[in-house]
Amino acid sequence: MVDPDNATQHLPVDAAAQMRTAEDRLYPLAMVDVERYQRGTTLCGILLEDLRAHSPDLTALLGRRAPLLDRLPRLADQAGLSLLGLEPETLVDAAMALRCRELDAERAHAHQQERLAGARDNGQEWLVNEPSPVAVMAGIYRREELHLPTGWRLVSSVEAGATGRPTVFVLEVVAPDDVEGPARSVTFDDEDAWLRAAAEFRTEISGP
């Protein structure tokens, strides 16, 4: 079920499966039938505009599926596009998948802004984004530290080596938007050296 108090976070398993299946059906058409793929993605975009207008959260999004299925023939006719060879459910579910990702990005941005405001109110110097347990279990490690007074970021990541290759430890120092210049990136093959360098970068960013 969707949590009404946090409607952008919990997508029912069956709805997620429908959206994933729809994308698996629609996008590979580019390899076998370009014309049908173009019609399908154009109609998907039209449906997405409707969802943006009427689906401010996940509850509204899930409730929009049936009305969109009813509206699709009229929308296609208004756009001068044929539905021949295209499944209405596939188009609607693929559009819903796109809107679902947009809502998730909006939620993540709002959450980050709340964290930033709270950290500044509490007088914190650094705001740390730790990798999620799911990402770590998948072999992905990326830790981002934001220096609140200056906007500089320190990104620590680990790139697991393929069979026979060593693990690579990476540090990136990313300037704030108002400072020109590329990010500094340094790689290490030793975890201790990586950790020491991270501590040195923090001291450099913090200043005296």
Explain how this protein is built.
The structure is a single chain. This protein is an alpha+beta fold. Helix content is 55%, strand content 14%. The protein has eight helices and five strands. It has a five-stranded antiparallel β-sheet. Strand 3 and strand 4 form a beta hairpin. The chain is elongated, with a radius of gyration of 23 Å. The N and C termini lie far apart (52 Å). The N terminus is likely disordered.
The assembly state of the depicted protein chains is: single chain
For the CA atoms, what is the radius of gyration?
23 Å
**H/E element order:** HHHHHHEHEEEEH
**For the terminal residues, how far apart are their CA atoms?**
52 Å
Briefly note the structural class of the backbone. alpha+beta
What's the number of extended β-strand segments?
5
What does the main sheet amount to? Answer: 5 strands, antiparallel
Strand order of the largest sheet: 1-2-3-4-5
The parts where pLDDT drops under 50 for at least 5 residues are 1-8
Percentage of residues in helical conformation: 40-55%
What is the residue-averaged pLDDT? Answer: 88
Compute the number of helices: 8
Strand content: 5-15%
Shape summary: elongated
